[in-house]
Amino acid sequence: MALIQDLAPAQDLSAFLKRRPGAKTSLELLVTGARCAACLGKIERETAALPGVSAARLNLTTGKLTVAFDSAETADPGAVIATLGRLGYPASPYDPGLAAEALDREGRRLVLCLAVAAFGAMNTMMFSVPLWAGLFGQELGPATRAVMQWWCALVATPCVLYAGQPFFGSAWRSLKARRANMDVPISIGVLLALAISFSETILRGRDTYFDAAISLLFLLLIGRWLDHQLKSRARSAAADLMALQAPSAAVLGPDDIEHRRPISEVAVGDRLIVRPGERIPVDGLVISGFAELDTSLLTGETKVLDTRPGQVCRAGALNLSGVLRLQALARSEDSAVAAIARLVEAGAQTKSKYVRLADRAAEIYVPVVHSAAALTFAASYILGLGVREALLRAVAVLIITCPCALGLAVPAVQVATSARLFRRGVLVKSGAALERLAEVDHVVFDKTGVLTEGRPELIDAPSWAIAQAARLARASGHPLARSLAARAGPGPMADDIVEHPGLGMEGVIDGRRARLGRAEFVCVTGSHIHETELWFGFEGEAKIRFGFSDRLRPDAAQTVAALKAMGLTVEVLSGDTLAAVAVAADAAGVAQRRGGLSPIRKAEAIDALQLKGHKVLMVGDGLNDTAALARAHAAMAPGSALDASQNAADLVFSGEQLGAVVEALKVARGARRLALQNFGFAAAYNAVAAPAAMLGLVNPFLAALAMSGSSLAVTLNALRLRTAK
C-alpha cells in the first residue's frame, strides 16, 4: 500500500476516519521507523498538539497510531499526515495484515544485514591480521601492506554500506526532521572510519580501520535483532478476540428464507437464526426459542445462562441447546466482543508508554557524544596536531563511546531471562514486560482456570447412579453433563432422548423413563438450587443429586503464601458468583475478593488499583480477562487459556502449577539487578574510555576493540542469570 505522504495533497483522507455512536472520531495509522520511547514520546507529543486532536497513542509493538479528534468537524487527517512526515516517520492506513507483514519484513532485513556484517567482519579480519602483526615487530613491506589494505577495503566497504542501512536510513530521516537520534553518531562514526581508512590506504598510511567499522555494525545489529525478536512476540490480541465472532450469520429474509451473509454485512434490525453448536454472531434480542448459552468466555462464570424470548444475547456466546431467532441490536464492530477488543488494544498502547532505562540514557547520549567529538577535534586542531590527527581522535571518541554496551545491556539480560524461564515452562513474549514484572506490588488472580483448574468434577456419588445418568449425559453438551459422562467413561446412550432447552435431558433407560437436569425439571421440590448440581431419577422413584466442584490448583495456597512473603498483596477478581469466589479465595488464603464482574468492570478495577499507585500483575485465562490483562502493568496466562488471553498476556506458563508466577517474579527481579549492573558498567566504561580517546591514548582500532570488550562484558554478565540459583 502506498504511503499516505505519497498521495496527492488534494485527495480526501476522510475515508480513513472511524466514527462510532457515542465515541469520538478516530484515525488509525501504521507508523514506521519508531523504535524507542523517545520516538514514541515525540510522535505522541507533536500529534496531540495539533488543533482538534484530543489524544494520540502509539503502540510501539504494532506500529499503530490512534488519533482521537474532538469531533468529526475538527478532524483533519491531512494535518496528522503532514506532521508525521515532518518528523520523519512514514505512515499508511492501519491494517493488521500490513502491520504483521511490515514486522516480518523488518525481521528479514535485519537478518540479512546481520549475515552480511558477519561475513564482512570475518573476511576483513583475514586481511587485517597480517597488518596487526606489525604491532608485535613483524613489520610488512609497504607493497604487501598496501595490498592487504586494499583487500580490506574491497571486502569491508560493500558490507558496511549494506549492513549499515538500518542505521543510515534512521539517521537520515532524523536529520531531515532536524533532530538527532542514537543512530546519528553511529552512522557518522562508521562512515568517518571508512573515509579515513580509504584516505590512509590511498596515501600509503600505516593504520586503517575497515575491520573496526564492520565489526561495530555486526555487534550493533546483534542488539537490534534481539530487540526485534522480543518485540515480534508481543503482537496485539484484538484480532484473536474478533476471531471469536462467527465469520458469517444466518439472516432470515421477509419470506423466512435463510440467507448466509458475512458478519460484516449484518445490519441492526436483521432477523437471525442461531442453531445449537453455533456462536451468537452479533448482540441480539431473542424473538423466539429457548436455549442454554455458554458465556464462560465472555463472563468467566461457570454456570450456563438460560435464554428465552425478550432477553439479550451477547456476541461470542455459544448456543448449547435449542434454536434461537434473534433481532440484531448492533453491528459486529459494535458488539460486546468488539468493545473488549478495543479495551485490549488501548491497554497494549498504554503499555508502550513504559520508558526503559536505555531509552532514558539515550536522550542525553547523542548531544553529549557529538559535543565531545566536536570538542576533541577543535582542541586537537588548535593544539597544532593537524586535521588528520584531530579527525582520528574525534572518530575514536565516536567509536569508543558507541552505545553498543548500552544497547545490549537490556536485550542480553532479556534473552538470558527468557531462556531461563523457558526451561521452567514460562514463555516470555515481551522483553519490556520483564522490567514491569519486577516492579509489581499487587497480584490479581482470576478464579476459574487460574486459582482453580477450571474443570468441574463430580463429587462422590453411587457408581450405579453415575452409570445410569451417563446414558443421558452423553447426549448433552452441557459442561456438567460432559463431566459426568467423562467420569462414567464410554458406554451406551438412552433411547428416545429429548432435550428440553434450559432444563435437561429426558429419555428411556431399560424401558423406564428417566430425567437428568435441574431440580424442578426432575420434580424435586424444596431443594436449594445450586449452580453446580444436576439431578437424576426414574419416573416415580427417588432422585439422586450430583454435586460438582472446581478443584483448587494443588499449589494455589502455597503460591499465595510465597507472594505474600515477597511483600506483595493478593486479590481475586472473578466473573463468577461471589459465593463461589469466596470458597476458592478462602481455600487459597486470599482475603481480598470480588465476584460477579463483567469484562469491562474487571478492566476498570485494574485501572482503579493503578490509579492508587499499585503496579498490578494480572493472571487470567478467559475472554473476560483479556481487557484486564491488557490494562495491567504486567500480565500472565496459563497455557490452557484462550488464545486471545495468551496473546494479551506478557508471559504464558504451562503445566498445572501456579508456582510459575512466583518463579517469574523472582527471576524478573534478578534480571532487573543485572540490567542495572550493566548500565552501571556501561556508564563507568564511558567515563574512562571517552577521556582516553579525547587525549589521543586510543586510536580508532583500539577504540573498536574496547567497545567490543564492553559489549562482551555486559553479555557475559547477563548470562550469569542462566546458571544463577
Description:
With 725 residues, the chain is an alpha+beta fold. Among the domains are: 4-94, Alpha-Beta Plaits; 241-339, Calcium-transporting ATPase, cytoplasmic transduction domain A (Distorted Sandwich), CATH 2.70.150; 414-453 and 553-671, HAD superfamily/HAD-like (Rossmann fold, 3-Layer(aba) Sandwich), CATH 3.40.50.1000; 455-550, 3-Layer(aba) Sandwich (Calcium-transporting ATPase, cytoplasmic domain N), CATH 3.40.1110. α4 packs antiparallel against α6 (183-202) and α13 runs antiparallel to α23 (660-694).
Key attributes of the depicted protein:
725 residues; seven-stranded mixed β-sheet; Calcium-transporting ATPase, cytoplasmic transduction domain A; alpha+beta; 27 strands
Low-confidence stretches: 1-11, 347-356
SSE class: alpha+beta
Shape: elongated
Helix share bin: 40-55%
Mean pLDDT: 77
* CATH level 1 class label of the domain at 414-453 and 553-671: Alpha Beta
Supply the CATH superfamily name of the domain at 414-453 and 553-671.
Answer: HAD superfamily/HAD-like
Strand arrangement, largest sheet? 15-27-26-25-16-23-24
CATH topology of the domain at 414-453 and 553-671: Rossmann fold
- How many strand elements? 27
Provide the CATH architecture of the domain at 414-453 and 553-671.
3-Layer(aba) Sandwich
Q: Please indicate the percent range of residues in DSSP E strands (runs of 2 or more).
A: 15-25%
